[in-house]
Design brief:
- This protein is mainly alpha-helical and about 190 residues long.
- It is built from 7 helices and no strands.
- It comes from Flavobacterium agrisoli.
């Protein structure tokens, strides 16, 4: 369904389990960044009523996820650490086209967002199926479903709002690029790391 070409090695979960505090901190900041991304898209595209309406829902959901992760952090007696850089997302960001029209920029930003949600969804699935902690397994299963919905929302809006860009062709380029970089990740106790 997600179209990703390279799956995360389930052994990544062994790395995650070695430092639950780190994965939860990283995850919390990922949710904050996802909410900020939705709000930024609203700010830049306020004239697109359907997009604004749906992104308000996504922003709220991402903040709820942040709250859920923070609650888990407190329950497990660990600390919410400082914000981490997300090197995976930074590499994806560099792939976004910087030239073209305002519409072209919107479409690429939506595809960028869809890609992050797709990989997050895939990682949450791997966690839900392989982590020893039953509470975390259920938590990541529930979030996987939400991320899948966000992925399809961003992709569908790219299809809806495109003016010149062949979205299917550009999405394939995004998939190919993501495939070329993802093999560098899956070695750290972070959602994308």
């Amino acid at each position: 369904m997600l179209g990703l070409k390279l799956a995360t090695d389930p052994r990544w979960v062994n790395i995650v389990e070695s430092n639950i505090e780190e994965i939860l901190t990283d995850h919390a900041w990922c949710e904050q960044k996802a909410a900020s991304n939705a709000i930024s898209l609203i700010t830049q595209n306020s004239e697109k009523e359907a997009l604004v309406t749906e992104l308000l829902v996504i922003a709220r959901e991402e903040l709820e996820h942040l709250q859920m992760v923070h609650d888990l952090i407190k329950k497990k007696g660990v600390q919410l650490g400082r914000e981490r850089k997300d090197h995976y997302v930074n590499e994806l960001f560099k792939f976004m086209k910087k030239d073209g029209s305002r519409n072209d920029a919107l479409i690429d930003r939506l595809l960028f967002s869809a890609m992050i949600e797709a990989r997050s969804c895939e990682r949450f699935k791997v966690l839900s199926e392989n982590i020893e902690d039953p509470e975390l397994a259920k938590f990541y299963r529930d979030l996987m479903i939400s991320e899948a919905g966000h992925y399809t929302t961003f992709l569908n809006f790219a299809r809806k709002y495109t003016e010149k860009i062949d979205v299917e062709k550009r999405w394939k380029e995004w998939i190919d690029f993501e495939t070329s970089i993802i093999s560098n990740y899956g070695k750290q106790e972070t959602i994308h790391g």
